Amino acid sequence: MTGKVILVGAGPGDPGLLTVKGRRALESADVVVYDRLVGPEVRALIPAAAKAIDVGKEASRHLIPQDQINEILLREAHEGHTVVRLKGGDPFVFGRGGEELEALARGGIAFEVVPGVTSAIAAAAYGGIPVTHREHSSSFHIITGRARKGQDPKINYPALVQGGGTLVFLMSVSAAPKIVQGLLDAGMPPDTPAAMVENGTLPSQRRCDAVLGTLLQKAEEMQIHSPALIVVGEVCALGPLLCWTEKLPLHGKRVLVSRPKNRAGTLSDRLRDLGADVWEFPCIETVPIDPCPQMEAALRDLHNYQWLAFTSAAGVELFWNCLRKLGRDTRYLSGVQLAAIGPATAKALENCGLAADLVPDTYDAFHLGAALAEQASGKVLLLRAEEASPALPEQLALKQIVFDDIPVYRTNYGCPQSDELRNALGEKRLDFVTFTSASTVKGFIAAAGLDAGFSGITGLCIGEQTAAEAKRHNIPVRIAKAATIDALVELAAQL
Ligand code: SAH
């Protein structure tokens, strides 16, 4: 059966600006054909199983000519695939989406379109510039600075100037001198507010504020490069007041998130929301002990235990998988009390339909041990990492509580050394590193090398134990108020 093509707008770069429908299309794709302007974090959402074809275009020439791109789309769809054609911004705003659909229509291939958030509006918005405003502008025009085969586009400057609306020029960095001259020649006052936004909506976004008469000089001073757009009109004067992205607490800061990939999600997203340039660099890996006969045996005899205690969401997930493998469900746990080290672990229990009976006030192994020792009279089962903290069993032993401590996963922090990380540290291009456990510190040190200089960074640590490990390597640290992701994010926001 013949497949189909879904033409999807990827938005201007911020992965949050990919539409819900666009994301669903991406998840359903067998093949993804994408352009250079699709942001790296949107590209990261391409399913691992999908074939990704880069048809990225360079500024002055096409790496792959348009007719060849059309051929790729036709061929992949004829082979029966669901093909997502992913384009920066909106596919019909100077994106050649129309041309590609014409080729598909002629080739008898079914297609759908998922519009995207165009950079013309979004990059301006992230630069604090509303394209319309009741007091300043009642229309806006999106104009290309480049025409077919590098020719000059035929822009009717007098009409644009007479219209009086906001003007947004795309593909305009190299054409900027001609655009400015064209507007001045058509009678636009040189003191008309104007701006350029480079890498709009991305952490590397920069904004150049000017008036028409000074725009070229300022852009030159700031070395503004493509992708960038020019905005001209009164609304640009609002930029300094409304540029909310530059006021975000972590604007301009580069933060390395060292958690394992499957758990980095929320932390990274929340740091991005604070304006950070997040670098996901997993320094540890949790490896389940599988099969785990000790856990299976303990679960078969679960009724021998009064308490079941967890120190991580990973532990809960492995326990639950094992329980299901034994053909059991929540009913089997009646009579057993459940303890969780903190809210994230309690939440993992909740996801299995289980409520934690105990969460200590301070979310660490010592306090969990102390609280359990207070409450337990019968036997306790600990399902934790192989190298977990001795503080928990020590507290139980102090009160003569009987327990089984079963390792259900091990943490691999033998990260290979990374030149990219060493260079970033050497050139002081990294501001913060989040450490959510002592093992993430160990993994980070392995990746950076013991001899790397750490004085330029601050380690944002989830707790005392983690901070102690970081300090051993002379990493300056700040410690979250509580051992939660919320508190870690709050700490980052205050810096
Ligand atoms: N279809 C795209 C535009 C494609 S033309 C859209 O709707 O956004 C490419 C031009 O778009 C670039 O030369 C630049 O002018 C602009 N552009 C794309 N992404 C941008 C970004 N993140 N910041 C600023 N300008 C961007």
Topology:
Blueprint (H helix, E strand, L loop, with lengths): L3 E6 L10 H8 L3 E4 L5 H4 L7 E4 L11 H13 L3 E6 L9 H10 L3 E5 L4 H8 L13 E5 L12 H7 L2 E5 L5 H10 L7 E6 L7 E6 L3 H8 L5 E5 L6 H4 L11 E4 L3 H13 L3 E4 L4 E4 L4 H8 L4 E6 L2 H13 L11 E4 L2 H9 L13 H11 L3 E7 L5 H8 L4 E10 L6 H8 L5 E4 L2 H11 L9 E4 L2 H9 L4 E3 L5 H10 L1
Parallel strand pairs: 1-4, 1-5, 2-3, 2-4, 6-7, 11-12, 11-18, 14-15, 14-16, 16-17, 18-19, 19-20
Antiparallel strand pairs: 7-10, 8-9, 8-10, 13-17
Helix pairs in contact: 12-13, 14-15, 17-18
Bound molecules: S-adenosyl-L-homocysteine.
Account of the protein in words:
With 495 residues, this protein is α/β, with parallel strands linked by helices. The protein has 4 domains: 4-117, 3-Layer(aba) Sandwich (Cobalt-precorrin-4 Transmethylase, domain 1); 121-245, Tetrapyrrole methylase, C-terminal domain (Methyltransferase, Cobalt-precorrin-4 Transmethylase, Domain 2, 2-Layer Sandwich); 254-284 and 414-494, Rossmann fold (3-Layer(aba) Sandwich); 288-412, 3-Layer(aba) Sandwich (Rossmann fold). The chain has helices at 20-27, 40-43, 66-78, 97-106, 119-126, 157-163, 176-185, 215-222, 239-242, 261-273, 293-300, 313-325, 343-351, 365-375, 391-398, 419-426, 438-448, 464-472, 485-494; strands spanning 4-9, 31-34, 51-54, 82-87, 110-114, 140-144, 166-170, 193-198, 206-211, 228-232, 254-257, 277-280, 285-288, 305-310, 337-340, 379-385, 403-412, 432-435, 458-461, 477-479. The strands form 4 sheets. The chain has a 5-stranded parallel beta sheet, sandwiched between helices. Strand 6, helix 6 and strand 7 (166-170) form a beta-alpha-beta unit. The N and C termini lie far apart (57 Å). The model has no long low-confidence stretch (mean pLDDT 94).
